[in-house]
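User: My collaborator sent over this chain with a note saying "see what the structure looks like." That's all I know about it. Can you take a look?
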Amino acid sequence: MPDHAPAAARRGLSVDSTGAIVSRLLRELGLERGMVGWRAVETWPEIVGSRIARRTRAVGFHDGVLQVEVEGSAWAYELEFLKRDFLRELQSRLGSSVRELRFITTRGGIQR
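Assistant: Without extra context I'll predict from the sequence alone. Here is the result:
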């Protein structure tokens, strides 16, 4: 292995094996669930698209439930029909730790 290669590569570690080590460490430290929640919040706009992201904001994750603020009851009502699709996409990306979506209606718009 060339001297200029990253140290991990010289030791035979790949990005995949390093990722597995990090995942195992997070799980052993009890931080994996928090990472899933953080990733769910961060991934929300990408999952729902820009039109819905402008009217919503993922605000928290607790006990497998992603909490999403929604601008007004009309939007919340519409999103209930799409909830299953959003949940399926979240689970495909983040695993079964995401069990439910909860929409919270706000007044006066979404604060960014």
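A starting point for your reply to your collaborator: Residues 33-106 form a domain with the GMP Synthetase; Chain A, domain 3 fold (CATH 3.30.300).
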